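Q: I'm teaching a short session on how sequence maps to structure, and I want students to see two examples side by side rather than one. Could you give me a first protein with its sequence written out and its structure tokens following it? Keep the formatting plain so it prints cleanly on a handout.
A: Of course. Example one:
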Amino acid sequence: MPTVKELHRDGRWNFRAGLTFITTPNAPSGRGYSSAELERLCRAQKGVVILDEAYVDFANENAMRLALKYPHVIVSRTFSKAYSLCFQRVGYFVGHPEIIAALDKIRDSYNVNGLGQVAARATLDELAYYRKSFLRIIETRERVARELTMLGFRALPSQANFLFVGPPVFSAKEWLGKLRDRKILVRWFNHAETKDYLRITIGSDAEMNALLEAARDILFR
């Protein structure tokens, strides 16, 4: 993340914006920001800052203390990623009581369905299981990043449950097709900033081994 001084010097960042969103860890890059970096930026912003921590369970640290410390900072989290409740659409904000009260005034009466609420509460009784799962995903992510790097991929440092990699030899779009032919599905975003990369979600060890074997097959056979 650029420093506050660098953002001031660049001139494109609006420190007086009424609302600023920051995803940490970032999607699709997986880049995580330290709470110290985020705090410096939050202190400089004049309006409300929302720190989107959808992938924070796979990160080195979180910024929850900033939502508890600064009245204009909100932390946003979801049960869709780490807790596998993507179809239930359950999330929450943590912030100053005045901001939360203002949001509650515009909240729809039926914004979270009953099944989603039951499922979200059930995860809280199984935190030991989920935390073990987080650690397994992190270990697998780091292993796959190392092995892809040895194959010539450029794996960006990730603090999420996916890797953002620049593939060798063929274009990212070609890799998308070659992997799909081998029944391996990854994401490719056709935008100027992302078209040279693939996003690879971290699955089970067996699934990731299949990905690595497919990559070797594409490169060497």
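Q: Perfect. Now a second example for contrast.
A: Example two:
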Amino acid sequence: MDGAVAVLSLGLAPYNLMDKEMNEELIAALEWARDQSARAVVLRSSLRHFSAGANLDNMIREADESEVLDWGFVETLEAFSAFPAPIIASVNGVCVGGGFELALACDLIIASESAKIGSVEVTVGLQPLMGAVQRLTQRAGAARAREMVLLGRRYPASTLERWNVINWTVQDESLDDATMVIAQELAHGPTVANAASKRLVAIAVNQGVKAADEAMLEVQRAVLGSADFRTGVRSYRENGVGMAQFEGA
């Protein structure tokens, strides 16, 4: 923990190759962050690269034994979506295949300018297995999603920022500091309201704007009853905009 920020570091040398065990560890790590009352989460790599994708040796071995790869993909995506606090992917080096899908499961993505990012599964005869197709379609539109998953190219972070796939590109040496600035800003925000906003975005994306409109009254109950709402109003009256010190309750 860094204050109220849970920092989850991938460190499976040399390339953070993903498999069932890693997915299980990611779910457990989010459960730990929830137990710590984390108000923001950073997902990063402690290695030169964020992730080079799936462990293909394990994958081909399991594919020879079963028609379905039971690596907990859906469970991992659900754990990221259901986590109440914002999750930031801090991407360095190579981030492709399943590693890219892991970043796409986060709420926000910040990447170093030298990062090379892409959905490259087609180069080994696969389609993305952990949600990249639908999440790229959400973020960048169907045309860009088709381009990325059908051609399997790696793109510079600046291109994907322009396409609305990632949020920010920063200089390599600034990645860690820039990530923590954003994470701390989120962690010092109104945690209950942030969770409500995250939930409404998910409803709008998955069920449509009308469903999100219909959910607003229920979602706002916790926000209107929160101490942070009262703190924010009091601070606004006494000190002006943006000066509230929220406690996350």
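Q: What should students look for in example two?
A: Point them to this: The radius of gyration is 19 Å. Also worth mentioning: The beta strands are 5-10, 40-45, 87-91, 94-96, 108-112, 116-118, 155-156, 168-170.
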